[in-house]
Write a structure and sequence with these properties.
Length: 200
């Protein structure tokens, strides 16, 4: 019997997935979580064979939970996502995630992937893998990447300026240029996009 932890912040999706997987003779859902923090706690408590984690759930994402779980337990991780960016895929594989699938995957196919992962294999959705191989070239300069990396911590413009040894006005210019190139309206959105793509 393969013991599963299902974690997704959308109650309806999580409940439906748990119910469908529980219909399989060789799968047992031993815990359900609605946050990444709860997923880590329940993994410690139940020690499932496999944790199926939503990448986008709060407060930190599923990848953060995966890293914590893998650091303490032999539990294998399958990440489920709506939007798979190449940088996230690379981070997931580096963190020891065993499966990476889109939310459009039918439950029956997911059950098969769970069995593959339980057998020691890795599974990456072919479309996600293809996007990682054909990822966009980074349009940002090194300085723009540097200030975006610093802004990921939630630091103010003055704090970023001190950290990267630039004047606050210069930092604002770099942030503005990065936002324009990425077509977003805030520095936080620009930093998140750069992180998703694996540029920072």
């Amino acid at each position: 019997m393969i013991r599963l932890l299902i974690a997704d912040d959308e109650d309806l999706l999580r409940g439906a997935l748990a119910a469908l997987l529980a219909l399989e003779d060789d799968l047992a859902v031993v815990a359900e979580a609605s946050t990444s923090t709860e997923a880590v706690r329940l993994a410690r408590e139940h020690r499932p064979d496999i944790a199926v984690l939503d990448l986008e759930m709060p407060p930190a994402d599923g990848l953060h939970a995966a890293v914590e779980i893998r650091a303490e337990l032999p539990t294998r991780i399958i990440l489920v996502t709506r939007h798979a960016r190449p940088g996230v895929l690379r981070r997931a594989l580096t963190a020891g995630v065993s499966g990476f699938v889109p939310k459009t995957t039918p439950a029956e196919r997911l059950a098969g992937i769970i069995r593959e992962v339980a057998g020691g294999r890795r599974y990456v959705d072919p479309d996600i893998a293809a996007s990682a191989l054909t990822e966009d070239h980074c349009p940002l300069t090194e300085r723009e990447l540097e200030v975006l990396r610093a802004s990921r911590t939630g630091a103010s413009v003055n704090e970023i300026a001190t950290q990267v040894h630039l004047a606050p006005g210069t930092v604002r210019n770099y942030l503005s240029a990065a936002m324009t190139k990425l077509g977003v309206t805030s520095r936080h959105a620009a930093a998140h996009r750069a992180w998703e793509e694996g540029w920072i």
